[in-house]
Amino acid sequence: MSISPDLENHTRGYVVPIGGSEDREGACVILKKFAKLCGGEKANIVIIPTASVLADTGQKYVEIFNRLGVSNVASLQIEERLDAERQEFLDRLDLATGIFITGGNQLRLSTILGGTEIAQKIRRLNASGVHVAGTSAGAAIMPEHMITGGATGTAPSRGGVILAPGLGLTNSLLIDQHFNERDRLGRLLTAISYNPFRVGVGIDEDTAIFIDPEQRFEVVGSGAVTVVDPSTLTYSSMSEAAKTDALSLLDLKLHILSKGCSYHIADRTAYSAK
Amino acid sequence: MSISPDLENHTRGYVVPIGGSEDREGACVILKKFAKLCGGEKANIVIIPTASVLADTGQKYVEIFNRLGVSNVASLQIEERLDAERQEFLDRLDLATGIFITGGNQLRLSTILGGTEIAQKIRRLNASGVHVAGTSAGAAIMPEHMITGGATGTAPSRGGVILAPGLGLTNSLLIDQHFNERDRLGRLLTAISYNPFRVGVGIDEDTAIFIDPEQRFEVVGSGAVTVVDPSTLTYSSMSEAAKTDALSLLDLKLHILSKGCSYHIADRTAYSAK
Known about the structure:
2 copies of one chain form a homodimer.
Chain A: E1 15-18, H1 29-37, E2 44-48, H2 57-67, E3 72-75, H3 87-94, E4 98-101, H4 106-113, H5 117-127, E5 131-135, H6 137-140, E6 145-150, E7 161-165, E8 173-177, H7 185-194, E9 199-203, E10 207-211, E11 216-221, E12 225-229, E13 235-236, E14 249-257, E15 262-264, E16 269-271
Parallel strand pairs in A: 1-5, 2-3, 2-4, 4-5, 8-9
Antiparallel strand pairs in A: 1-10, 6-7, 9-12, 10-11, 11-15, 12-14, 13-14, 15-16
Helix pairs in contact in A: 3-5
């Protein structure tokens, strides 16, 4: 799905993909920063727990954000496509200053939300200034093109990734999550090599990028973010390779960014922590 | 250990690190190419099986090279430091056109061979034109600085790699092996970040680089070679990071090279397959 167009007199909201397994019990650096961004005590946060098949995932996040000082938190139990058209859910979303998409299975998210009123509303609200965070599967679904599966390992391969249309909150990045922990460089490289027009971003667990309306992001959390920029790519063997062939990709740019580092997506420039 | 100096009127031999688990039963692309390089039917190959604790590792490679048409093959059973001073072994090495170092444990190799006559002779022979290949641990030991252990995963960390002095057959590369299969990008990045004066090369299984005397290498085999070039690095947080901190490394160059691709180490330039 495509990103919702800019709205006159509105600054877009932040988009905050989290690599999964963010701290929910200790200092909660990422979740606290998101809560503050959404207004702190005055924030109004809506949880979308659709990726998870566990009944209490949404409620757990309600309790976490309550503990972090946000009293207005609701979880919308969207469990099938018909739920994603319910007027009470759409109305509740209109009150939100922030939307949080939980982890689980990104194909559950895309198959239940894809093409529904809720999906369109999330995009429009983000364009109008509402901040949207997602962790694990909730991060994976954010881009226009989402990574939904693939091979593990460092090496790309022709069949090494499964792509599907995502929620379309950003069209300038490809996002992978649990990146260091699940050995996912190869599938990110594969995704980039199919069409090298996007920057690939691999986000470790307990790590997030806060993408601001100017398409700059800052790294927050305890892990690293791996940025693979194909803008300098001089050669790719993807089109000629057989399914099991090792691939060649020449002249990529690579950045490893930890907390405080930032990246300007339009300029393709990385900055160290101030 | 440092590389042996160039000898007048001698072209150096090739250095051929293999990422481990090279095909030994099918087409044997890598081993066949090495045998041919060493003179084919006229080759005289010496096996160094010291990395392995299995008694028959050397003999198995003797049989493989015999099967590939090389009749003059000997395995030197160097099992302790005193073996590495034996005159008969040193004399046998003088006949070699190629030396093959097997897999096993690279610390076994370095602790048994380090500082011995055999180690010095291998370096000198390579400087005089004898080709040296090594697989797995035998590849790891080739550089001046060898990677001998470390963390798995894509992310570098301050304590993420164990380095030790290697055999010193090349001083222009850091080499890691079983690269894709054992998820070793993080430890290669860590090794590079300690001192970004070397190119890092991660070699997949059944894959080799044939480094010629002009310090160009070609990729041979079924996997890929990951080249991380820190010559464009603009920032590293290594010196300030605590042991468990995620690291930042900005503006690295990354190449994924499959068979037929080549790389010029001095120029830091990658070329696609012709």
